[in-house]
């Protein structure tokens, strides 16, 4: 089996799973709508939703790590860190909300850095890599802006930006789904 044939088979196998990114993206958008609907939500409920968001993101990065050829270790690291953060948030959601509100700027900056690195890591062969870069830069800017607010403002900001974060993640995953589908279709026609 030649390298070209093996690459074609891998692309076809990954291309069959394009719908998974579509479903995950839709779930992120639903989560964002749930978070953005809260007006006087309990801190516990928001802590649980944030924990679930971290767990889903962590699992997604581990799956990407198993499919990636380059930067595999980086996907695993991001997945494990997000998974641990999600477990901690689920164990004590009220405390997780307070801690996240206190360090909200830092969290957004880290997410922005991850998205920026991800954009550059997937730049080759990805015509829409800049979309991830723009989202990452926006998250970094939100991180610095949020870092200078008081706790009560941060608590409300956490609700809004957690919803925005989930919305951006959903949109990026839906775009990724159609890119993966396109790659699978291209390899099938070769």
Would you kindly provide a written description of the structure presented here, covering whatever features stand out?
The protein has 190 residues and is mainly α. It has a domain at 20-48 and 92-185. It contains eight helices and no strands. The protein has helices spanning 3-15, 18-37, 43-67, 72-91, 93-102, 104-121, 129-147, 151-189. Helix 1 crosses helix 8 and helix 6 runs antiparallel to helix 7 (129-147). It is elongated and about 60 Å long. The model has no long low-confidence stretch (mean pLDDT 82).
Strand content: under 5%
What is the share of helical residues? over 70%
Taking all Cα atoms into account, the compactness measure Rg is 18 Å
Structural class category: mainly alpha
Looking at the structure, what is the overall shape?
A: elongated
């Amino acid at each position: 089996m030649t390298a070209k044939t093996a690459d074609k088979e891998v692309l076809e196998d990954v291309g069959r799973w394009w719908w998974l990114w579509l479903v995950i993206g839709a779930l992120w958008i639903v989560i964002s709508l749930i978070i953005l609907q809260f007006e006087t939500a309990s801190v516990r409920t928001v802590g649980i939703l944030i924990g679930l968001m971290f767990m889903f993101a962590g699992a997604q990065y581990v799956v990407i790590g198993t499919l990636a050829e380059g930067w595999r270790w980086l996907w695993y690291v991001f997945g494990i860190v997000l998974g641990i953060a999600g477990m901690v948030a689920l164990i004590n959601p009220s405390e997780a909300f307070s801690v996240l509100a206190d360090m909200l700027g830092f969290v957004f900056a880290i997410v922005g850095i991850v998205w920026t690195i991800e954009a550059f890591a997937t730049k080759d062969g990805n015509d829409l890599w800049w979309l991830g870069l723009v989202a990452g830069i926006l998250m970094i800017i939100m991180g610095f802006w949020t870092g200078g607010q008081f706790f009560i403002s941060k608590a409300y900001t956490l609700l809004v930006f957690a919803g925005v974060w989930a919305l951006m993640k959903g949109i990026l995953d839906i775009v990724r789904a159609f890119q993966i589908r396109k790659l699978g279709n291209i390899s099938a026609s070769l």
